[in-house]
Write a sequence for this structure.
């Protein structure tokens, strides 16, 4: 199981890092709503490695059998590694590629009538928030994949 998690986790990490950076860079001229949708789609595409990792373990390592809990565990472990790629991409984007992201976002929110305070917590904090966001989505993908792929 360890080999499968590391293999698919690292694939997910590098895939998500490259894909997320590419989407962020290409989408710089798009409005924030479109960027958000593209960001979530990118995360879900990157998390597809969960499905393939569980299926690989079931079909190639465990003779076509996998329990729901084992599939869920594999999916969650792959998520932990894959989420690092998205967090690194977010940090790179908000630190080096578009350091004005927080100011631009605050301006857009004010233009839409938001009167609350939008604070720039910094790239590191936002990378952690992105990591946690990917973990939540990864949990959902892992639950779904483990349910679909389980075989007794």
């Amino acid at each position: 199981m360890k080999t499968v998690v590391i293999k698919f986790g690292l694939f997910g990490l590098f895939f998500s890092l490259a894909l997320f950076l590419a989407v962020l860079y290409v989408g710089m001229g798009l409005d924030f709503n479109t960027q958000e949708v593209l960001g979530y789609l990118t995360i879900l595409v990157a998390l597809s490695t969960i499905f393939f990792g569980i299926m690989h373990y079931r079909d190639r390592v465990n003779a076509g059998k996998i329990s729901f809990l084992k599939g869920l565990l594999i999916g969650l472990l792959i998520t932990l590694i894959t989420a690092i790629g998205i967090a690194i991409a977010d940090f790179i984007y908000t630190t080096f590629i578009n350091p004005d992201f927080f100011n631009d976002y605050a301006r857009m929110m004010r233009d839409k009538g938001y009167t609350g305070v939008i604070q720039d917590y910094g790239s590191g904090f936002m990378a952690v928030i992105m990591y946690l966001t990917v973990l939540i989505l990864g949990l959902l993908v892992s639950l779904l994949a483990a349910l679909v792929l389980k075989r007794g």
Remarks:
- The chain is about 80% helix and 0% strand.
- The chain has a mean pLDDT of 92.
- Helices lie at 2-26, 32-46, 48-61, 68-97, 101-111, 123-149.
